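Review session, final week

We close the course with one last complete record, chosen because it touches almost every idea we covered. It is Thioredoxin family protein, a protein from Hydrogenibacillus schlegelii with 243 residues. Go through it on your own first, then we will talk.
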Amino acid sequence: MQTERKKQARRIGARAAGFRDGDGKAEREDGPGGTGKKTAGTIVPVGGGSAMAEAAEALRSWWDRGQSFAAYVDGMTVNRERLQSIEARYALPEAARAFWRRFRGHGWRALILTADWCGDAMMAVPVFCHIAREAAMEARFYIRDDHPALMDRYLTGGARAIPKFVFVDAAFQERAVWGPRPPEVQAYLDAVRRRIPPPDDPAHETVKRAVYREVGDRYATDPAFWAAIEADLRRTLEPVAPA
């Protein structure tokens, strides 16, 4: 375990300073929140202890600016009913409960970059809420476009893909980052996107809208996708979880 944690601590995340628009607008229109290239594991600033302390202090400051889950849901106008429906129907598998209980009493927190319009967030946030209750883990929520400085610390392939879950310990040291989706969901999304004709095709917009309606319906109704999110979060946090 110690060896793995040391490996995790040496991973350096690429923090692009600028925003490469890329698929940003299409991602918002389409529903799913990003490119699917996941960032996982601990990201440690270059510069040793002082840089790590500064990074922790920055995350502590961001924590105070986040919304509670209740406030986030109260502000939703697009996917509120679907998010609440998933939360009501999802249940943590019994085999996972013991793992998440390991976090109890250790003061871990999660900073969650999200947006109401994002289909991936609609699906992942309610799954995480079950995890947070089992782990006794507090969370704060940040609307992507309202917090560009925080979002730009966690770009995926240069894009503002969401959701992103940033896990910190009691000292606000960053321990792991997850998002925007598990590989099983990414494979499905890649497959359905191939059905969309090129942008210069007259049918492009019609087919794209139909495809993403299908994606949204699948996200809202497929328990296998919800289970994949929990399992991938567990894989991401396993190397750094309390013993």
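Two points worth writing down before the exam:
Strands lie at 109-114, 138-143, 164-168, 174-178.
The domain at 2-240 is CATH 3.40.30.10 (Glutaredoxin).
Good luck, everyone.
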